[in-house]
Amino acid sequence: MTPMIAQNVHGAIDAVWKFESARIIAGLTRMVRDVGLAEELAQDALVAALEQWPGQGVPDNPGAWLMTTAKRRAIDHIRRGERLERKHEEIAHALEQRSLEEGVDDDVLRLMFVSCHPVLPAEARAALTLRLLGGLTALEIARAFLVSERAVAQRIAKAKRTLAEERVPFELPPGPELAGRLASVLEVIYLIFNEGYSATSGDDLMRPSLCLEALRLGRLLAELAPRQAEVHGLVALMEIQASRSAARTGPSGEPVQLHEQNRGRWDQLLIRRGFAAMLRAREAGGPPGPYVLQAAIAVSHAQAKTAQETDWEQIAALYGALVRLVPSPVVQLNRAVALGMARGPQAGLDIVDTLTSDPALKNYHLLSGVRGDFLAKLGRHDEARTEFERAASLTHNAPERAFLLKRAATGTSRVAGVTLGQAAERFLAREDLDAETIRSYGQTLRRMCLDLGAGTPLAEVTAGKTSTVFAVAWNGAAAKTWNRHRAAVRSFSAWASIDDLSAGLARKPESRERRPSIGPPQLDALWECPNTAPREKTLWRLLHESAAAARTALSLNVEDLDLENRRGRVTTKNGPVRLSWRSGTARLLPHLVEGRTRGPLFLADRRPAPARMPGPADLCPDTGRGRLSYERAEYLFKQATRPLDPSGAGYTLHQLSHSRR
């Protein structure tokens, strides 16, 4: 097969997976009653497609092929289950006879309510449902929630384990319980629609399939809960927002702002559906909730025949009511836009300026985009350029980035003198700085350039502006982290021969307390734990006996082991690092290797999805699994040692590696 054909096949597989993954996982969850296991079986089916389709060709019905393959693997799993040993033949036969399309919509809806079960915290419910039903990556979910990617990945993994441990049934909840879970379900559908309406990353401004899926789920939910005003309010909001899709992009895929859109291209059928859903929300009665208020804002836009006829005062009043219900900084930002349109750009800018110090918005590109728009309207073009450039550096969506950079280049003058970005580059290029110092200083200066603008003249960077950057970026950081960034700014100021930019930053006292190493009684209990998996048992023994850093041990490859002499070698950026171990590790390592001759020693639990495929150095050629991450290894060790730790927090891998010392 030629590379071009193989590429086309892989593109087809990726497209089918994005569209079918939620239905496949839902159908599998119905069978195995375990969301985590269902996702793993679905991934196995995807890997089978990647292996077979390039040679055999894409089947006529690729979705059915994936579903059939996944169900067969699920049946095999059920047959292997000890608890179902007596009934596995009967169950497998029954499952094989079912139609692939049977109960798809109900299954997806059940999966949504299972993902939003009360045993899970609110943030975990939304993250898990977005992952399973929306197909969003952890990074995309992180941007939707304004949190880190690592936090989202941990939430999803923990949510799957909780559902399995609590044996949550795969069924729709009864009436009273359904109402209690509705808020989480609505939030999830809303976020799925938002990701489709304004994609956080990629080469396209929109992901229409996500919008359609959110609309489908919302309409299903409206049939299930016809007396819930908020359900109809969300459907109305999505219908009207979706009506603008054709007008939101220009000929080259560039964004078109709302006031510049050709309203003749708005889909009138979707608008009428939105109006009808809004009427049903009003008939349901009760005080308006967040989705009804947002739908009312969308209705105000849809009722205006031209942008000039938009009733911005009414929209600003609706946002004021929404802020009282949902006092989030993002809603405040939207209210600022409405007030700026109603009462002039300065009114909007005054509100936006109060939000720039909110840590939740420090990486939110729309904050800088809105501020740049107001500054441009006020004729403050150099400041506007800085904001547009910052917004462009924060967004991961290619059309949006190009649009913002174009706005940055419009109506601005050239900056004279050395800029902050130029000075930072020269400072980090010094030959007297070692690699670790460059990395540390680079983190500080990149944040300074991001928040203040790399094109800002160095002469305009002040201690006051630097203090604002620190307050937003590192106010909640540990004292040691704060002081490290402060020292970097002081060093940069001295090198540049300018006033000390850290003058307004007090040094924070650092605690000298260190968590103690793990004591012998706790270690003995750890080694004797009967439920420890071979991978963890080997890693923990290795860290204890070698006293190596956890990241170094996790970087070990099978080909770098000298089992006979009980030693290994890891190549790091600072050169090779040698490890040696004792008899405990020596007994365990051969069983962990199991005939493998190359690739990572410590492997992840499952094979990675195509969208998250690691590099060749971190992928096992024999099993297809990736290298075990430090974050996952740390989590498992903390969970295992919580009963042993008097504080109840669990020990860290760092404490384990230092316990022999």
TrEMBL record:
GO molecular function annotations of the record: DNA binding; sigma factor activity
Top-level taxon of the source organism: Bacteria
Pfam families the record matches: DUF6596, Phage_int_SAM_1, Sigma70_r2, Sigma70_r4_2
Domain Core-binding (CB) span(s) in chain numbering: 418-497
This protein's record includes keyword Transmembrane: no
Keywords, sorted A to Z: DNA recombination, DNA-binding, Sigma factor, Transcription, Transcription regulation
GO BP, sorted A to Z: DNA integration; DNA recombination; DNA-templated transcription initiation
Domain Tyr recombinase: 513-661
Family: Belongs to the sigma-70 factor family. ECF subfamily.
Name of the protein in question: RNA polymerase subunit sigma
Organism encoding this protein: Streptosporangium minutum
